[in-house]
Amino acid sequence: MKTLKYKITLLLVLVMSSLLLAACGDSAPTKEAFPSPSTNAKASEIPVGTPGPVPGTVVKFPEDEAPHNVMTEWWYYTGRLKTADGQQYGVEFVIFQGLRANFPAAYASHFSITDVQSGAFKYDQRISISDSFKAGGTEGFNLKVTAPQKADWTMQGVSGKDNLKAAMDDGSYAIDLTVNDTTGIALHGGGQFSYGPAGASYYYSRPRMSVSGTISVGGTAKQIASGQIWFDKQWGNFLPLAGGWDWFSTQLNDGSEMMFYNLRDKNNSLIQVFGTYVPPCNGACTPNQPRKIYDLETSDLTIKANGEWVSSVTGVKWPSGWTISVKEKPGIPAMTLNYKPVIQNQELDTRKTTAVVYWEGDTDISGTKDGKPIAGSGYVELTGYDIGTTNK
């Protein structure tokens, strides 16, 4: 049994790391491998409840909420919770799905909690396989990642009404959440873009989902009073060959949102910056209708790290705190935003499941928009900083 368990674990690590560790390839990619995503001009015109494809669009709802028969896919939730007793928690919950010919579907999952009050950051990770993979359909997704003698970690949802359950093995934290899309969908790059030789990706977000349910702390369930979750869904036959990336989600208190990321080669040279600005709904948005969006390109954004933090566990030196400048252009206001982690240590060592070390954490946002003060919250993800420096 131990030999079988070892072989299964090895298979999963190999499959999942091939999805995610391609970011750490031996050769630096050329700029041509990451062309700027081409915008789908019809992306914001999909009528509510449309059952099939609309001319000029590439993503269908609810069909594309379900799993796909592709190489790489993930369902990714990050956000901030506030409990009835006035406490604040950051949460990340993700399931990665990997498919390879002649192998069953492989799943890896990460679950983390940022406990602002205690200054603690805890995470757990799992891998599992499934012989019951089923792609497509109109019933959304129903995912689970199992572990022996432990409750399943699950994600279920359709039409922007999702349920999330996960519990850390040591009993420190658990979630049982219902999240509902309150504003609609952002189709990044119009919903699909190319990585050139590395493949093509579909990518959409539900940038502002309301939260109810409970978070358990040390075995005691606490009711969620308020909160907001950012959901990302990405899938396709792609393996991005970058050295790493910095990804930012942004939920501003005027109702607008923004996503952007940069890609770097193994020498930390910038390859690409891309993002999406989503203006406020102003009462005109519904959960399954794509929002009006504006593309952010390399020349529109300046991303500057303000400090650093060195992990005592892995030895990795991470940037910590950023100033983001956004140039004004049609549809996009000028912004200067400061992103400050609520605590510095939000590092995940997931070498047991996806073979990477990354930093992903809850972040306070302040600054100016159109010259006026603005605030908000978001999540930042950093990868690739462990190359050549990680403690074994």
TrEMBL record:
Cross-referenced SUPFAM superfamilies: AttH-like (SSF159245)
Gene3D superfamilies (alphabetical): AttH-like domain
Signal sequence extent: 1-22
Pfam families: CrtC (PF07143), Lipocalin_9 (PF17186)
InterPro entries (alphabetical): AttH-like_dom_sf (IPR023374), AttH_dom (IPR010791)
Domain of life: Bacteria
Domain AttH, first and last residues per copy: 72-237
Ranges for region Disordered: 32-51
Keywords tagged on the record: Signal
PANTHER family attached to this UniProt entry: BLL1000 PROTEIN, HYDROLASE
The name this protein goes by in its record: AttH domain-containing protein
Species of the source: Candidatus Chlorohelix allophototropha
Source organism phylogeny: Bacteria, Bacillati, Chloroflexota, Chloroflexia, Candidatus Chloroheliales
